[in-house]
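Researcher: Going back to the complex we discussed earlier. I've cleaned up the inputs and rechecked each line, so this should be the final set. Can you rerun the prediction on the complete assembly and write out the structure?
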Amino acid sequence: MRVAGLPAQARVVVIGAGIVGNSMAYHLACQGWKDIVLVDKGALPNPGGSTGHASNFIFLTDHSKEMTLFTLDSVRQYKELGVFTQSGGIEVARTAERVEELKRRMASSKAWGIDAELLSPAEVKRLVPYINEEIILGGFSTPAIGTVDSLRGGTLMREKAQAMRALIVAPGTEVTGIDVENGQVRRVRTDKGDIETEVVVITCGIWSPRIARMAGASIPLSPAVHQMISVGPVPLFADTVGEIKYPIIRDMDTNGYERQHGSDMEVGSYDHRPILWDPDEIPSLTQSKLSPTELPFTKEDFDESLEHALELMPDILGDPAVGIRHSINGLLSLTPDGFPLLGETSEVKGLWSVAAIWIKEAPGIARCVAEWMTSGVSEIDPSGSDIARFYDHQKTQAHIKGRTAEGFNKTYGIVHPREQWDSNRRVRVSPFYEREKGLGAVFFETAGWERPNWYESNKPLLAEYGDRVMPRRYEWDARWWSPIINAEHLAMRDRVGMVDLSAFAVFDIAGTCALDYMQKMCVVQVNLPVGRVIYTSLLNPAGGIKADLTVMRLGPNYFRVVTGGADGMRDRKWFADHLPDDGAVQLTDLTSSWATIGVWGPRARDLLQSITDADVSNEGFAFGTCRFIDLGPVRALASRISYVGELGWEIYVPFEQGARLWDAIWQAGQPHRIAPVGIGVYGTTGRLEKCYRAYGNELEQEFNLVETGLARPQVKPQEFIGKEAYLKQRAEPPATILCTLTLDDNTSRSGFKRYPMGREPVLSPQGERVVDRHGRGSYVTSAGSGPSVGKTIMMSFLPPEQAKVGTRLAVEYFGERYPATVAVVGPTPLFDPQNTRVRS
Amino acid sequence: MNILVGIKRVPATAGQITLTPDGQEIDTRYLGFTVSPHEECAVEEAVRLTEKHGGSSTVLTLGPEAAIDQLRDAMALGIERALLLETDGREWDPVATSSAIVEAIEAERNAGRTYDLVMFGNESADSAGYQVGVRVADALDLPCVTGIKALEVTDGRASVRRQTESGWEVADVPLPAVLTVKEGINLPRYPSLPGRLKAKKKDIEGIKPAWRDGGLEKLRLKLPVQAGHSVEILGKDGDAGTQVVELLQRLRLF
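Model: Rerun complete. Updated structure for the full complex:
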């Protein structure tokens, strides 16, 4: 039975008409899509989702560049729609730790180019006369902050799409199924009729996991409660014209906020116990008194927040005539890592997720995803929010619930950049785990893998190396860190170290057309002799860097791809999406089949030669090659490359033989005083000294190969994805150039030596932002200790004028500027620039 | 003056009511709890009277431990003390309810506390029995007026009004008395933050009245057949305005 007006076919069906769904319909129409159908089981303009009760305020600064760019773009769009009201916003500090954190907010604001300042309590009170300035220590103020009418904004965007004759809207239409054939979307079933389509966009917020499951896909979010009350009428607000006059206050240390809304004050909290909801348990529209996302208020959970709010604004909130007029347990979406869920799902082609998004970033994200859906490329790099990033274990309810509950109370929290999760640990362990535990490994988690960051058993090395381990005295800089990392680094460079690299994602690419396929995917020449190891980037069609990895040619049409654990699933989808339809090339994920040990250092060859009959001399086993060798009873794949810049090999061993290999290497290493070495060295100190780039830090879609210094002298004659754009990039002068800087003097005003960690703004010595011709401000992409060179090393993109060896600059860290000098322009290593160690 | 207000915890239902599978209870999984709008007005009236005449106010409920939530709501508006007649959650019919309330009032009288005024909402929001106020008055041998929409107290007497088809009935009642209140007698206030926090800290006195049978036995709940909806579009633009005015006149709204 088909209800009149519901189309039988569509180019795309967008499910959910909240702020995200409306924005998606509009931006797809802007991209030229026609025959868009937007459905929602509820009525318009407010179908009852989270948008309907949202607090609707937008704070601009996030420590994440990606989220900040989405937010700034969204504000621009809201302003164009005429639904944005500027009010200003202030994050206040009640504790000394928070005062420090506000300096970090300032630094991020500078890095991303947002106007902000730090205020004294008296200055806060001048802007917000009803605040109790006696209990705060200061504030971080951003004048451009404001509120939006998100319902109106969404409605306007939807109407624009309708005016473009691109969109049909079907409210009161409930999706009952999504048909998938051969892994591809075919049809959406609703209670008003079926719609044939090959593209479905899920924008239903907290209902998204349910809808995705109809298609056999996973959207790993959890609905969660966030409480809010509205009190009024506030006498002071009686003369306000419009919805807000006073700045919004975020009471960071108590996880609360207060924003004026007309004559009321809305008080919200992220401080209560995490209250997660099952997506299948959400009440229907008719079962809800207010709406499915406005659940009955549980007073006991909010009482503490009431006290905090009362304490902060006693005159307004303590007035007996000011009553609590509205109170809800609002539902919103939380994800395990706190980032949205964007992109085509890994399980079903044509099924797109645009979920777990806040009002403040919705239109910006929608523009990005619409561009992505249309041309495969977007202006803002969404990699951190790509839904393809999740491994299977991260899609389980146990993981989703554990992490979202743990993350909830950190909403306004002070989260150290290296901070580790508590919940759901020890899911993925390598065969070396028990050995590592025995050596006092301090485990950090990446993609579910437990990886030793350093080993406590190396403590005696501290005495051996003294101050060369660059100890840190200031607690924040030394948190989630140890000087042992630097000691391991020195020991490895002096003799030999062994590193657990099992978190690598490994895929085999094989088939009659594998060579042609790999040639198309990779920037560098792939048709090299069997046994060569190829380091290459992969580009998207616009020439943005999509991946950075190594490929081993194991046969004429047989390649093994190795990429970082954090990038593994995104990279796998990229490869899988480009496989030829006829099955002439197959991808097999062998991550769980191979464990990996890296053995590096001047003694690495001596060690390896002592346990194998294979010829591992420099002539017998050249740099950049790989082959199977026998190490005792273990036949392993040895690959002579090095991300730490030392002589050595990555050794790939079948998982079940891992422990045996570890023991063999460990034994053979004893006469050479081998040190177990953690990721603190592999991921930071080792590679920074060699100026090796890392994906997510230096490498992302925003900067091209020329700018990152990875452009080779020649471009291969064969076609590859992004070649045309890359050739254009090579023909132009770069707008910015990746450089390596050293910190000259890191002594703070109070006498402590400080150690930046990354994302700090890079400024002129006078404190001005350094900006390239595209308006992008310079910031530290990676920072860490370089024990062998005795300096703190930082990388940053700099405009050509500043990209010269010797240029003096500054880095702002917790409110102070520290002098830094450009040490290297481009990819030449700081340590062992001739690469003699690696090639020895 | 000493005022006692009786309230009853009920689910705050939405458009669609769902029953538990055995048909015995309303499914309250998605629901908050509240009291009837008549009772909200009774509480507000009690607070206003003590604000005007001095004295003390008490709120009382017969219900499960969770009903403490509704008692605290009343205290957040200014009621001074609360008394819980705790049940195991079973539904008590009006006869049993009134009997337990009368017991509690008599126990208080023996302890030296008497009430000048006992107020109830006209009926509860769920079972709407409309009996408890009258039965309590009868048992205590007190005068009772139900459905009142205006109340003035002077010199130990209450002047009350209630609405009928043809106008207002006025009564002059000597105190002590039992009055049941109809929504519309006042506009209840919202709780303030300090009010809520003060109420949170107060102790609640509790007794556990013994179960007794009333006159009613619940067999099960049944949802009534929903009347179909139809929508009639009166008109568009200017023409619709005239139609709306005619409709309002037909409804005798002005």
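Model: Worth noting: Chain A has 20 helices and 40 strands.
Researcher: Good, that matches what I expected from the previous run.
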